[in-house]
């Protein structure tokens, strides 16, 4: 809810001022998956989570939130998924690991420690911030969530944008032989 500071042009001596109501420290967290399958258009699946503002409440996604996102992705994609995750603590939580082991449609791989350049989802936030969220003062958390959803929906329909985020990482997807469990895809670097 705290607006970003940006530079702009104006007449000399007339600094533009944007008034912001209710400067809030509450935040919106977003978990997302970019989904790639050879021969199909890439997909973006996401879930926003609002901070409820309570002192004892969690401000970000828990392992349960990530689990629910994986379940939603499995239902939307109608098939097995192989997420490649960064090393966020919630991604490596014991409960999430146990959940993955119990599901035959889910195999989780982790990126090397501190490799943000290999995560295509990290690159999705930049066009969102520069596009639909820039130069706006949000009046309520609901207004912010509405704009985030609208911006991500716009990105969802831009296959070239999602493909470009994978290309920026230098990774490619190559299908391997099918196993009894599911089709596996190797994420391999061109470097």
TrEMBL record:
<feature type="domain" description="Tc1-like transposase DDE">
    <location>
        <begin position="5"/>
        <end position="142"/>
    </location>
</feature>
<protein>
    <recommendedName>
        <fullName>Tc1-like transposase DDE domain-containing protein</fullName>
    </recommendedName>
</protein>
<dbReference type="InterPro" id="IPR038717">
    <property type="entry name" value="Tc1-like_DDE_dom"/>
</dbReference>
<dbReference type="GO" id="GO:0003676">
    <property type="term" value="F:nucleic acid binding"/>
</dbReference>
<dbReference type="Pfam" id="PF13358">
    <property type="entry name" value="DDE_3"/>
</dbReference>
<dbReference type="InterPro" id="IPR036397">
    <property type="entry name" value="RNaseH_sf"/>
</dbReference>
